[in-house]
What does this fold into?
Amino acid sequence: MIASLGFIVFAFIVGTALVLVIAAAVRAGAAEGGDGVIKSIYVYLVLFATLMMIIGGSVSAFMAVADILVPTPYYQTFE
It folds into this structure.
């Protein structure tokens, strides 16, 4: 329950930050023309998503290798 609450808080903070960044960029872009600002926001969001996928994949691959090298012990009892 606590882990899901932490995830909800994290998602809320990230979502709020994302909305604030987009709102500030749109406000600044309205004075400058807007196309370049929206394009740069899109590029940065794609780069951020790619970075998160790379980090997640690296952690997953490391955990898989660790499980292969040092598997969890299996205990069998005859009781």
Notes: The chain is about 85% helix and 0% strand. The first helix runs from residue 2 to 32. The mean pLDDT is 81. Residues 2-69 form one domain.
